[in-house]
Amino acid sequence: MQHRRHPVHAAQAAVGVLAIALALACGSAAASPAGSDGMRPAGEGRMRFWGIAVYDAQLWTGTDFVADQFERHPFVLELAYLRAFRGGDVADRSIDEMRKQRPIEAAQAARWQAQLRQLLPDVREGDRIAGVHRPGAGMSFFLNGKPLGEIADTDFAARFFGIWLSPATTAPDLRAALLRKAVR
């Protein structure tokens, strides 16, 4: 049996994830409601692969966010999965997409792939993974509002978020949708 959340409950869950994530991104000790940390929704879009809906993505940024310098700003990118995937497959696909932006040394790619495979769980339809970018520190991952872990590597974080935010992304329409309200 498939469980679907009522839109109000889904919104409340999203606010909870974002409150935690925003507090971490902004270095705040206490979580506060989304928006009060200076973050606002910048855009959202749907990822499709060969016409199949994979996930819905939403980007939250500060008012000073500059898209072409995304790696210099705190932000939250949340993916709401529309189907189930194995965590290892998500990790492998992430590395493939990172390589498409620009080459990665084989040893570095293997290290990042191992970290992602260890960190990312299998996801089911309705699961939400949020990535919190912490400039100068790396990034943190959350699953349905609960911390998964972090990768304290700024190059990894820039390349990982570049999957969606880099001008070299393989999904330029999704990038445009995510950055719709962001300063370019």
Topology:
Elements: H1 7-25, E1 39-49, E2 52-62, E3 75-81, H2 87-101, H3 106-119, E4 128-134, E5 138-143, E6 146-151, H4 154-165, H5 172-178
Antiparallel strand pairs: 1-2, 2-3, 3-4, 4-5, 5-6
Please report which band the strand proportion falls in: under 5%, 5-15%, 15-25%, 25-35%, 35-45% or over 45%: 25-35%
Helix % is 25-40%
Low-confidence stretches: 1-17, 19-36
Oligomer: single chain
* Mean pLDDT reading: 84
Principal-axis shape:
globular
If classified by CATH, what would the architecture be? 3-Layer(bba) Sandwich
* Main sheet record: 6 strands, antiparallel
**Name of the CATH first level:** Alpha Beta
Terminal-residue CA separation: 44 Å
Structural class assignment = alpha+beta
Textual characterization of the structure:
This protein has one domain (about 5-180): 3-Layer(bba) Sandwich (Chalcone isomerase), CATH 3.50.70.10. Helix 2 runs antiparallel to helix 3 (about 105-120) and helix 2 packs across helix 4. It has a 6-stranded antiparallel beta sheet, with helices on both faces. About 30% of the residues are buried. It has 5 helices and 6 strands, in the order H-E-E-E-H-H-E-E-E-H-H. It is globular and about 35 Å long. By secondary structure, it is of the alpha+beta class.
Outline:
With about 180 residues, this protein is an alpha+beta fold. The chain has a single domain (about 5-180), classed as Chalcone isomerase. The protein has helices at about 5-25, 85-100, 105-120, 155-165, 170-180; strands at about 40-50, 50-60, 75-80, 130-135, 140-145, 145-150.
